[in-house]
Design goal:
Shape of chain A: globular
Structural class of chain B: alpha/beta
Helix content of chain B: 10-25%
Radius of gyration of chain B: 22 Å
Strand content of chain B: 25-35%
Oligomer: heterodimer
Order of helices and strands of chain A: HEHEEHEHHHEEEEEEEEEEEEEEEEEHHH
Number of strands of chain A: 21
Number of domains of chain A: 2
Largest interface: A-B, 39 and 36 residues
Number of strands of chain B: 23
Shape of chain B: globular
Distance between the termini of chain A: 47 Å
Number of helices of chain A: 9
Largest sheet of chain A: 11 strands, mixed
Structural class of chain A: alpha/beta
Number of helices of chain B: 11
Number of domains of chain B: 2
Chain lengths: ~450, ~475
């Protein structure tokens, strides 16, 4: 299966801001080999088919890569305005801005954090400076939920992204923001986030996926590697606002060691077809993973979410809450699995997906699964689909709030339940506003 | 506590018997067109049935095993080593006296008291594919109820049965429905005339009694407008060394306002592949309930379904599964909502013991432009040992507003405290375990008819007996 993507470039790019980019040709040989291997695998793997359970419910017409080509580096006149739009939180510990996979702006971490050994670099620079750390963790967990082929293309085509290493015991109080912009008709982007949180460290990272033109067709295939050592704490947020005609594949792999806590939230607003595959591996006793998602599906959008809570160690905890609101002719797919491996006794795992139907043409597909190979476990899952409670509408109407406005408020409240599971009020406020914007409510 | 229960010796003496086999008709081993011609010739079937079978054989050969979602264990079935048709020479008997002595012995070993038999409205005992005993109570016959075997039904009452035969479950539905369509024999074809309420349950007993012999019974029940019927099937099988295959197709048609309850207690011996397709169609205000209990077999795959075709139709699946060492109970339900105001309810409880694995697979479909449809699904799983396994794989598709679906599942185990508490009060560990398990399924067991719920409790006791110590 060939595609229109002719990505022959390795990680090098001429047009960068700051002192961050390696000279062209400085990409290590091993990385070039890795990319070649990815290319080969991409070409040999088949496209998903109907018989593939990992793609059940998916409209396979959406999984077509033929229209897309490599994104061109932007001239300064084009990326400057994007940088100006790349600030969401008042206070941050640092900020990186990528436009078409080229780093265009970086606000560096404080000197004190750097002295504590925090490494925060563009991915391509990290490959040169920290090959051992890089090679140990980069795409170490593949794509377990169906997108092997797309992950291979990512491996072949990744040019940059975030590399963040937080040493043992270090706390980064303020969130770090990373912006990935895609610009150009049928351009493709391959954002990558590689995050290593050492024992008892603490960090919050927000990825923003944004479109320069809100209606340009485009492709994104992103991968996250989030590694938490013992006792580490991570908040990871991904706000996805690709263009309304984009196709997006996002593979999130989170590995949680003993007593570590990972909390991730995906806010899915953009894209014509957006698939996220989120894997949480619970590797040690007392590990905890919270997997949250908020999806606002409108128009003809299709959101395709696949999850796996994989419990390898006894006595770990995972909790998934996915909330979808569906309007117009939108479709959502949720296929999740809690897997309790042999010997993972005393597992405590939850999984809940709730679909709020706002239109007669919308369609919600839910497949919440359990596979339990151990005993003494507590696992529950639930999936619901329903409409807005008429009594709630009546209650608001009785207080002079019109039907449309009331409906928006109720939907917003419904979705905000998942956002509220984060602790940082500034982030909660930011995300709530972005979700509300898609409805046209002000909060 | 859990570690103590790794060995499970199931007392299968209830079903562990065999008799000298006298098969007048034997299609031999393996499946070809000749097998089908043999079956048709022996049964004296019409040409259209022969064509139906031959077409089904083609479909069966074309279809792949569904291992992309189902267990790889299916590959252990060697279709070339199975006997597809075997029958005794006896014709259906109408009176008890005509039943051969060895068949009577079979009933004896099953522990069905003579007294109880008299109360059964009709007993269709299937002994190797063909009905050897059929005792439809006079009153039922007088009500116009037709209760016959599959070939009889198609040959003698085509105007009633041909219309629906293979329509609810088309030949190509899956590989095993195609297999059944090619080689079916035995089973029950039942027609209940409008308004007739059959007071006593109609009942059938099944047996497998030849090594490597698979049973492919075919059942079609049509409940005409406003009628009511309960059908019960229960099966135990003699123990064999090599795997046998059981692949039935059961189709139910509930016309306007009709009610059908279909009760199954499945206790095949632990070398049987039990791959069954069961589906009902419920017209306006009709109600179909599948009440299903799976205790035996090596692998059971069975997902009774209801297509809710008429307004206000109602479908229900009540399911109990017990998977012991080496067993995989892969059961579930399908609810296809195809009209407004239809409701469906699925309650599934499973128990996994030793290395047993139980899976729930469900499908709920509410297509667009329907209003006020409701589905409720509850799945609870109980794990007894550290090596026990349970899975849940539901799939729910809902389009549009005005409908509600909810799915809930939980997994738990018998708590050590509970067992300890009961032991302090003088119960043995086995008794305590049995009591806990019976408590777990008690609310569902009550849904079964009296005689079955008693038998069920006894079967659970038997299964749990060896699970401790």
């Amino acid at each position: 299966m060939s595609t229109g993507i002719a990505l022959t470039h390795a990680m090098s790019s001429p047009d960068r801001a700051e002192n961050s980019s390696p000279a062209a040709g400085a990409v290590p040989d091993w990385f070039e080999a890795l990319q070649a291997e990815g290319r080969q695998r991409f070409e040999s793997l088949p496209m998903p088919t109907r018989r593939n359970e990992a793609w059940r419910f998916t409209d396979l017409k959406e999984v077509d890569l033929t229209p897309y080509g490599a994104a061109k580096p932007l001239p300064e006149s084009e990326w400057k305005p994007l940088v100006a739009r790349s600030k969401e939180l008042e206070k941050t510990a640092g900020r990186m801005v990528f436009a078409n996979d080229v780093l265009v702006e970086r606000e560096i971490l404080s000197e004190s954090l750097r002295q504590k050994g925090v490494i925060w670099k563009p991915l391509d620079q990290a490959a040169i400076d920290h090959p051992e750390l890089f090679r140990k963790h980069f795409m170490a967990h593949g794509a377990a939920l169906g997108s092997e082929k797309f992950a291979a293309l990512h491996q072949a085509s990744v040019r940059s992204g975030t590399f963040l290493y937080v040493p043992r015991g270090v706390t980064i109080d303020l969130p770090i923001e990373v912006f990935h912009w895609l610009s150009g008709e049928n351009a493709s982007t391959f954002p990558h986030t590689l995050l290593i949180a050492e024992a008892n460290s603490k960090v919050t990272l927000i990825d923003y996926f944004l479109a320069a033109d809100p209606e340009a067709p485009g492709l994104s295939i992103g991968v996250n590697d989030l590694h938490l050592a013992e006792g580490a704490q991570l908040n990871y947020i991904c706000l996805q606002e690709w263009s309304s005609r984009a196709r997006a594949f996002q593979i999130n792999n989170t590995v949680v060691a003993a007593n570590a806590t990972a909390k991730s939230l995906n806010v899915n607003l953009g894209g014509a077809y957006a698939r996220t595959e989120s894997l949480s591996k619970l590797m040690g006793e007392g590990a905890r993973s919270d997997m949250l998602s908020v999806t606002v599906a409108k128009g003809e959008q299709e959101f395709d979410q696949r999850t796996l809570q994989d419990h390898y160690a006894p006595g770990a905890y995972s909790d998934l809450l996915y909330k979808n609101s569906l309007d117009d002719r939108a479709r959502t797919i949720f296929a999740g699995l809690i897997k309790v491996e042999l010997g993972a006794h005393r597992t405590d795992a939850y999984q809940k997906v709730r679909n709020l139907m706002l239109s007669d043409e919308a369609e919600a597909n839910s497949a919440p699964g359990l596979e339990i190979l151990a005993d003494d476990v507590r696992c529950t899952h639930g999936a619901t689909a329903g409409e807005i409670d008429r009594e709630e509408l009546f209650y608001l109407a009785a207080r002079g709030i019109g039907r449309d406005q009331a409906q928006r408020l109720i939907v917003h409240g419904f979705l905000k339940e998942a956002i509220n599971r984060l602790e940082d009020p500034a982030i909660i406020d930011l995300l709530a506003r972005r979700v509300a914007k898609k409805f046209g409510v002000s909060v | 506590m859990a570690e103590a229960i790794t060995q499970l010796d199931i007392d299968r003496s209830v079903g562990d018997f065999s008799y000298p086999e006298q098969h007048a008709y034997d299609a031999g081993i393996g499946l070809t067109k000749d097998t089908i011609h043999y079956i048709c010739d022996v049964k004296g079937e019409a040409d259209w049935i022969r064509e139906f079978r031959l077409k089904a054989l083609e479909t069966f050969e074309k279809k792949e095993l569904p291992t992309h979602w189902a267990t790889e264990d299916l590959k252990a079935i060697n279709f070339d080593k199975i006997r597809y048709y075997l029958a005794n020479a006896q014709r259906s008997n109408k009176s008890w006296e005509d039943v051969p002595e060895d068949v009577k012995q079979t009933f004896e070993r099953l522990g069905i008291p003579e007294q109880e038999r008299k109360f059964l409205a009709g007993v269709e005992a299937q002994f190797d594919s063909e009905s050897v005993y059929s005792n439809i109570k006079k009153a039922v016959g007088e009500q116009g109820v037709i209760f016959v075997g599959s070939t009889e039904g198609l040959m003698q009452h085509p105007e009633i049965f041909r219309k629906w035969f293979g329509k609810i479950i088309p030949t190509g539905d899956n590989k095993f429905s195609a297999l059944n369509s090619a080689v079916f024999s035995g089973g029950s074809f039942i027609y209940i005339p409008p308004g007739v309420k059959v007071k006593h349950p109609l009942q059938a007993y099944f047996r497998i009694n030849a090594e490597n012999f698979g049973q492919f019974e075919r059942t079609l029940i049509i409940a005409d407008e406003g009628s009511e019927v309960m059908y019960m099937e229960g099966c135990t099988a003699p123990k064999f060394d090599t795997a046998t295959l059981h692949s039935a197709v059961v189709e139910l048609v509930a016309l306007k306002g009709a009610k059908i309850q279909y009760v199954t207690v499945q206790n095949w011996s632990s070398n049987v592949f039990n791959l069954v397709t069961k589906r009902a169609i419920a017209h306006e205000e009709a109600e179909v309930r599948w009440i299903d209990c799976n205790i035996g077999s090596r692998l059971t795959m069975k997902y009774p379904g209801v297509v809710l075709k008429g307004r206000k139709a109602r479908g229900e699946v009540i399911s109990i599964a017990l998977a012991s060492n080496g067993q995989h109970q892969d059961t579930g339900a399908k609810m296809i909502h195809a009209a407004d105001e239809t409701t469906s309810n699925i309650v599934s409880k499973s128990i996994s013991v030793g290395s047993g694995r139980s899976s729930y697979r469900g499908l709920v479909h509410v297509p667009r432009h329907l209003k006020n449809c409701k589905n409720n699904t509850e799945c609870d799983a109980l794990l007894i040992n550290p090596t026990s396994r349970t899975d849940t794989y539901p799939a729910i598709t809902v389009r549009g507003t005005g409908n509600t679906t909810q799915h809930e599942a939980s997994v738990s185990q018998v708590s050590a405290e509970q067992i300890f508490y009961m032991q302090q009060r003088g119960l043995s560990e086995a008794e305590a375990m049995s009591l806990s398990v019976n408590g777990f399924v008690n609310d569902l067991v009550r849904e079964f008819p009296m005689e079955y719920s008693v038998e069920l409790k006894r079967l659970i006791d038997l299964e749990m007996e060896g699970s401790v110590g």
